[in-house]
Design goal:
Structural class: alpha+beta
Strand content: 25-35%
Radius of gyration: 13 Å
Number of strands: 4
Largest sheet: 4 strands, antiparallel
Strand order of the largest sheet: 2-3-1-4
Shape: globular
Protein name: ABM domain-containing protein
């Protein structure tokens, strides 16, 4: 069952996020089960909304690829994360890629 991950990680900077993104390279070496990733900053926190085919897909990605890069980027603390079943997904025509 597809899930939506909502994450808030206080104290993460845009520079740290970009370091992790470069180390993991998830845009080119896409993790199994990843459907959508959106990230933004508000105040002193990173916010992420992801869609995954299953929660276990994210957990495997986090343990195997993301956690080591988070450590290397000097990110401390733990994110506040919740998973919920995906009810509906809409992607506007013509939308693709990162930005």
């Amino acid at each position: 069952m597809a899930v939506v991950l909502s994450m808030t990680w206080p104290g993460v900077t845009p520079q740290q996020y970009d370091t992790v993104r470069q180390l993991v390279d998830w845009e080119q070496d896409q993790p199994e089960g990843a459907v959508l990733h959106v990230a933004w900053f508000d105040g002193d926190a990173l916010h992420v909304t992801d869609v995954w085919n299953a929660q276990s897909d994210f957990e495997r990605f986090f343990a195997g690829r993301l956690a080591p890069a988070v450590k290397e980027a000097g990110i401390i603390g733990e994110p506040e994360s919740t998973f919920a079943p995906l009810h509906r997904r809409f992607v506007a025509s013509g939308v693709s890629g990162g930005g």
